[in-house]
Amino acid sequence: MKKLISFALVILLIPVSAYPQIGAKTQQNKIHGVWQTNSNGQQMTLMLNADGRGEFDGSEITFTAQGNKLSISANGATTNYTYILQGNSLTVSGGDVEGNVVFTRSGTATDTTTAPAQPTASTSSIIGIWTGNNETIEFTKAGKCVYQGQIFSYQTTTTTVTVQTTQGNLVMPYAVNGNQLSLNINGQAFYYAKNGASPDPAATAGRNNQQPQSGTGNIAQELVGKWCYVNVNSTNSGGSSTEQCITLKADGTYEYYGESSRSVNTNAYSGGTNSQSSDRGTWSYDGTRIHYSSSMGAGSGSYLLEKRNHPKNNDPMIVLDGQTYVTFYQKAPWR
């Protein structure tokens, strides 16, 4: 695991429960989520999922949390930390950390001066059920966004709506004019209407003049996450392995990482090869094809996307031009 940057911050103490086993279990459950820290302009993200897997600063990890001990394993090495939870603050110390590192749960703020505005009467015009682009999106009074059968928390200001996902916050400029809603996602405007009316781009053009780009689509939240293809072959004389992972983020960007290796071990020869590749850029989905545009010189294009469930464990998969990628994180099967 990459070393965490050192900070000189105060440790916050948590009262000990009168029932330590119950308290420990509650503590472990609360640690799950996406945590962020920022120092000297450098932001780091720690993702801890309920299935014991996660990421730190883009690297895959596994972890266990017992009492106030957090063990993180990456690249075959395990580091033990001490952690303390106080509301939306996670303080980590020990291990390879000098001093303390304080993470804040994603979507929250450390003080009220920087906290995103909660839905209020001034921004309540977004509340309701909106239809357009062959889909429906609902913003409730309770601060929940319902999209593609999933429920996300959201917050608004007078000009932006921030939807909190497991992959990070999706910030969208928006405009409401009567029963017309426009959402700007990754530089593209998408239009929705309330109460069964037809979306009218002209109704919101005065407040948001970004038009959808031809040949591209929306950022489908059900596709947000990490998807991996793994193939391992082993024989008495050697073997080969291939791993490819695509992370589709809620802000419309993607990251790709691939690694392959081959080894030979015979009486006459022993050796091996290893290669790595990576890419990043932007993505969108039009309901049939996933479109990409690389920011690293790999060009742009699209893949035919199919949704399938794994025949053995029913995990959801995406199939890109015949290549199967299985969800890296826990997700519900496709319906």
Describe this structure in words.
- The chain is mainly beta and 335 residues long.
- It folds into three domains: 86 residues, Beta Barrel (Lipocalin), CATH 2.40.128.10; 92 residues, Uncharacterised protein family Atu4866 (Lipocalin, Beta Barrel); 105 residues, Lipocalin (Beta Barrel).
- 4% of the residues lie in helices and 54% in strands.
- It contains two helices and 24 strands.
- The strands form three sheets. The chain has an eight-stranded antiparallel β-barrel. It has an eight-stranded antiparallel barrel with strand order 9-10-11-12-13-14-15-16. The chain has an eight-stranded antiparallel beta barrel with strand order 17-18-19-20-21-22-23-24.
- The radius of gyration is 23 Å and the shape is globular.
- The chain starts with 19 loop residues before the first helix and ends in an 8-residue tail after the last strand.
The major pleated sheet works out as:
8 strands, antiparallel, barrel
- Counting DSSP H or I runs of 4 or more residues, the number of helices is 2
Series of secondary-structure elements, N-terminal to C-terminal: HEEEEEEEEEEEEEEEEHEEEEEEEE
Distance between the termini: 36 Å
Coarse morphology: globular
* Cα gyration radius (Å): 23 Å
Overall CATH architecture of the largest domain: Beta Barrel
Instruction: Name the strands of the widest sheet in spatial order.
Output: 1-2-3-4-5-6-7-8
Give the count of structural domains.
Answer: 3
Roughly what is the average pLDDT, rounded to an integer?
Answer: 74
